[in-house]
Amino acid sequence: MRGAPEEVPKQGAHIVVVERDARLLELVTLTLRARGYTVLDCASGASALAQLQDSTPALVIVGDLEADPNRSGEDPQRAFAERLRRVPRLQQTKLLLLGGAQTAPATELAAARLPKPFTGGQLRGAVEALLDAPAPSGPVQQHTVMVIEDSAALRGLIGDILHRQGYRVESAATVPQARALIESRAHLVSLILLDINLPGGTGFELLKLIRDRTDAPVFILSALRQEEQMLRGQALGAQAFIEKPFNPRELVEKIRATLT
C-alpha cells in the first residue's frame, strides 16, 4: 500500500548555492533540483554576487569560499554575507551557511548553519525549514527554551529558528550534559524540548529530574510515535509529543501558544 504522497516544495522557489568544491556544489544542486527548486550554482562568491544583481532568491546557501589574498585573516563566508547584505533588495534574503562552527564569524548574519558532513535529508530539512519558517510577528518576551537533542544538525536548526523568533536557547546533546544543564539552569527555562533517545541514557530519565526542578512545559521529540512512549511521557509530566520530522512553523506556533 502506498503511503501519503510526499509534500513537494512550492514551485519557483529560487535558491542560489555558492561552493568552491565542485563535487559538493554538484551534489547540493542536484539534491535541491530533485525536490523541485530552481537552483543557480556558483563556484565563487564573486560570480554569485554578479548573478544576484539581477535576481532575488528565496535562499542563498554558502559553503566554502576562496579567501581574498588581499584581505589577510578575513573570513570568506562573513565577507560574502556582508557584501550580500549591502544590497538593499537582498537584505531580507535568507542565508544558510554550510560547515563551520555555530560561533564562526558569519553566523550572526545568517538564518542558520548546517554542520558538515551532512546528509541529503538534513540538507532538505534545513532548506525546507528556512523557507517555511514564519517571520517574527513582533517583539517576543524573552523566554528561554532548552533544547535537548543529540543530532547536531537538528539541534542547531531548532536553535537558529528559535533565535530568529526572539527566544533565548540553552542546549545539550547527551544525558550527562543535559543533567548538568537542568540542575543549574532549569529554574530559568520557560519550556524544554526533549529528545527520547540520547547518548548516556534516555529522555525519560531526564524528565523525572526536570519535574523535580521546574514546572516548565516539556515537549517530547521522537521519531517513534508509539502509544507506550506517549503515555509514559504524559505520566512523567510531558505536555506534548512532537513526532519527527516536524514542521518548524507548527513547532514555533505551538511553543508561542504555550508560552503566551
Automatic annotation (TrEMBL):
SUPFAM superfamilies: CheY-like (SSF52172). It holds the Pfam family Response_reg. Transmembrane segments: none annotated. Keywords: Phosphoprotein. Residues 14-131, 144-259 form the Response regulatory domain. SMART domains: REC (SM00448). The keyword Hydrolase does not apply. Signal peptide: none annotated. InterPro entries: Bact_response_regulator, CheY-like_superfamily, Sig_transdc_resp-reg_receiver. The modification 4-aspartylphosphate is found at residues 64, 195. It comes from the Bacteria. One of its GO terms (biological process) is phosphorelay signal transduction system. The keyword Ribosomal protein does not apply. Gene3D superfamilies: 3.40.50.2300. This is Response regulator receiver protein. It comes from Truepera radiovictrix (strain DSM 17093 / CIP 108686 / LMG 22925 / RQ-24).
